[in-house]
Amino acid sequence: MRLHPDFAPAYHNLGAVYQKQGKINKAIEAYQHALKFAPERIDTRKSLAEAEGERAKLFHQIILKYQMAISMQPDVAENYRRLGLAYYHSGRWDEAIEVLRMTRHLEPDSERRRADVEKVTQQREKYLSDALENYKSAVHQQPDNPESYDALGALYLMSDELELAEGSFRSALKLAPDNALVWLHLGEALYKRAQIDAAIQAFQQAIRFQPDLPEAYQQLGIIEQEQGKLEEAIHHLQMAKSLEPGNAMTHYHLGLAYQRQNLLIDAMTAYQTSLRLKPDVAVAYSHLGDVYTQSGNPRVGLTFYQKFLKLTKPRPDLKSQTAEVEAKITVILKEAKEGTTQ
């Protein structure tokens, strides 16, 4: 590499060595460098995908541990810091920053908490800047490589440059119109741009070319649930669940659809499964409170509402939901008092 800094096979082989040593982040970085200089290498892309899969498995239990810690002690800033750093080391930049920001709300005067957020934010920006430069160069050097356009589009999507993301994905599809993952990514960009009908068509195309793609079914189910097409939503979310049973958010959105259809037992099961897989999903506690209250068990609902409120202390984004839950608690307590008096 010192003799030939753009020699892709050396970076690829270095990545393979790091991967055998269990140094997954270094392996991923080496594979990414290899693709910078040889974006057409299918073996490098396969190795990169395998390394990213290993990293996800490695951090899954760590992430679950800290999610559980937050659900038990939602007012301890260090729990959020550890979860945020676990997300960071697993390459989930946006989730890392979101969780680390919660430490600022719990300890607003802490220099350490501020530094954590700034450090991860700066590293995310550097990663995006470097990766965008690399893939722009790759597209320029090999304009007939659909994978480079797809990777470039994913980076634009991370940067919220949605029009550029859409353009990159469409360029990839001109070269590889049957690539299901590109259709999925295009659908995500269109959904973020509020082009809902076009997003639905993109997700349907993804399923057409890869019928076992759980993310496409999940995205369709979420849109249909938002549109009130509850039977279609349940069908697609059940498909997503069968293909990827460990996805907490699929169970959560399935719970929403069941609840809107007044299928309360099914909704309970879906929300509880979501919380088993991701114990810090605050809004699931609120919905469980609603379901139990609607089922005639307001005392049980009260415990879930109170759990929700404990988790919302560092979540200013849930301010309106917090006010709604506080009002529901007031009603339950008032009715309980009146019933005791009678």
Structure description:
The protein has 342 residues and is mostly helical. It has four domains: 1-134, Tetratricopeptide repeat domain (Serine Threonine Protein Phosphatase 5, Tetratricopeptide repeat); 143-211, Serine Threonine Protein Phosphatase 5, Tetratricopeptide repeat; 213-279, Tetratricopeptide repeat domain (Serine Threonine Protein Phosphatase 5, Tetratricopeptide repeat); 289-342, no CATH class. It is 81% helix and 0% strand. The protein has helices spanning 8-21, 24-37, 42-72, 77-89, 93-106, 111-141, 146-158, 162-175, 180-192, 196-209, 214-227, 230-243, 248-260, 264-277, 282-294, 298-311, 319-341. The termini are far apart.
What is the string of SSEs from the N terminus onward?
Answer: HHHHHHHHHHHHHHHHH
Question: What low-confidence regions span 5 or more consecutive residues with pLDDT below 50?
Answer: none
The number of helices is: 17
Mean pLDDT: 93
The shape is globular
CATH superfamily of the largest domain: Tetratricopeptide repeat domain
Indicate how many domains the architecture comprises. Answer: 4
Look at the helices and sheets and give the structural class. Answer: mainly alpha
Beta content comes to under 5%
User: CA-to-CA gap between the ends?
Assistant: 83 Å
Largest sheet composition: none
CATH architecture of the largest domain: Alpha Horseshoe
Using only C-alpha atoms, the radius of gyration works out to 23 Å
At the first level of CATH, the class of the largest domain is Mainly Alpha
Strand count:
0
- Would you tell me which CATH topology of the largest domain applies? Serine Threonine Protein Phosphatase 5, Tetratricopeptide repeat
